[in-house]
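Suppose you are handed a protein chain with no further information: no name, no annotation, nothing but its sequence. What can you learn? This example shows the usual starting point.
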Amino acid sequence: MRPVPSILHLDMDAFFASVEQASKPSLRGKPVIVGGLGARGVVSTASYEARRFGVHSAMAMAQARRLAPNAAYLIPRFELYRQVSDEVMALLRELSPLVEPLSLDEAFVDLAAGPYGEALATEGAELARAVGEDLREDIRSKVGLTGSVGLSTTKFLAKIASEQAKPDGLVLIEAGREREVLDSLSVRALPGVGPATEETLRRAGLTQIREVAALPQEELVHLLGRAHGAGVHALALGLDDRPVVAERDAKSVSVEDTFEVDLLDRDHIVTELERLADRCVRRLRAAGRSGRTVVVKIRRFDFSTLTRSETLPAPTDDPLVIAQMARRLLDSVELLGGIRLLGVGVTGLADWTQEDLFAQALREGLEEDAADESAADAAAAEGVGDVGGVAGVEDGTGEDAAYGGPAGPRAFHPGGELKARRWAPGQDVAHTEFGHGWVQGSGVGRVTIRFETPNSPVGRVRTFAVDDPALATASALPLLGGV
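A reasonable first move is to predict its three-dimensional structure. Written in structure tokens, the prediction is:
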């Protein structure tokens, strides 16, 4: 255990919701809830104004709407959240090379490894507190958001301190105060104690950390097993030698979607699977990785969940290979009854990719198919033979009624009528006359937009037809400090 509180834990306050309030002046000081807005959506983050109504993360969105019917309900904008997170993490890396991000809005920092390391050894807690306060002010100045800071001698206690500091505060736990802080806390505050472990401890009459600390380690090992029991006992005593690790090696890259309505049509399921495979590849490449094993996750209408996987001889990041393997894995599963969730992942990650002969063979096959299709189209244009085994239907003029040749218009669209654009609450838009805004809501062919930017006054609201050509999707505007 360190003699100086040199481990810092930063936790941004209601991060997603706070970013939305900072970027939308009309929502500041009002309840904001970010998450999936469909019937099966869940709350990702609720602002502190929304939490007063009992709304919290991981709550079903339907329940949140009952508790806070007048709150602003918005879709997540992960690209903007990541940009803001990158700016905050850059501030942390100015304090130390040892920064361990836990998520977009949370990280540990080892101050002893940074420029303040030598001074901390002599000035101790007061310097650590000053560094933490300066960090909070720097975050507020750069992105206009608040964060809570905990400082202590271990990672566990630093995280406990940041929880006590919320919202927008700083708590420092000095060496020697571990028992004073821990004794009053529930066992759920211990890392590794989830609902199942908590229930096991409760049955043994252990609900507070002080009770676990007072128990002989052998009894806890008997209850929880050797490794888990010994670890929980050490943490209950305030003993935590886990270092701050600058980089965590990801074991997999994956994406998944839960659908508002169960997917029944196989073609629709395949389309969604291919879309997920594409997203997975983009994440894989963004991380500079490749992988050997493709995994498909399927949750059926009855909530039964299946996973199927296939492994290649060498790593790949080729979208064609990954999508083809995902489709083959899907073919091995019975899809009757409907699909409520699909996921695609890649495991067995590596930092390199061998020449992918499998991908090359697939591409050559597709090129041959494309050449065959072009020849068939050319034959159809000349009126030679049947196309795709179905004879052309003539309308008495000698022309194909469904297809008027390469220069003629289609008489139908293979996917049915083109759907009108959909606008989601919180989405960024741009209008040719009124500039940047965001979607407040849409329905019955209309979309309502509030035109404002992070540093503007509260904007005006205007309504347009959903297919208004002057209206287009836009990228989020960056946050500026002091908003």
